[in-house]
Amino acid sequence: MFNPNELVLEKIRAVEEYDPATSELTGRYTQIEEPSLKTSADGTTVTDAMGAEIVTFYQAQTGTFSFTNSLLSLDLAATQFGSDKEMAGKDNKIVIPVSETITIGADHTAVLKYVPVGPAGAEVKFAKVINENNTFGKTYEVAAAAGEGVFTLNAETKTLTFPEDVTGRVFVQYERESDSAVRVTKKTDALPKVRSLLVHAIFHDPCNTNMVYAGVISIPRAQINPESVELSLKPDGKHAAEYKLQKPYCDETARLFDIIVSED
Question: Does residue 186 sit in helix, strand or coil?
Fold first, then answer.
């Protein structure tokens, strides 16, 4: 009979997040560092007339599961923000802000990298000249016809035309559409959804480390903690997350989580 006790935990190889109503996979994280599973309870102590403790009753047992993902995860960020990761397509293009520094050609035109979108005729509103010492110079505004202090725009050909005395480089900011992009939005009125988790682990027998066992921690009800979310914006930054665990309220078994280890 397979009945392990002490095991060597090699690693948590994946954390999977599911919609508990439909069992649809909503997120999967595979670069797991510092995983931790904790439980807690509220205690009520009964004392006698002299204040001596007789017994402590524990109730409202909860737990937390936390980890750090080695890589920035857009799926995890969406869960923390209480939103969905939006994927663009041909019928659902995502608008992306663009900032460009462009060299003005001999014909007094500057060509954008992308087709700009926005109010017709004013898809690019301003262009700011960059001086030779990399400071900003005069600002030009879009106009329907050429003139002093303005530029004209042909959005279809991505071309800005400047007065003849404007040379060098210009800085422009505009928006473009993409059918190959994703977007994660943080809204102040959005709360993280309740999920179920499967935490997959690899164990070894301490007496024979060549014996490898598969394990999984099954958590039926987990809600990510949005109280303090930090996304490190450095190349070596990590992405931390913490889930609050509670039993499904109508579950008579009061199951908080299962730790399952399999021989095969």
Answer: coil
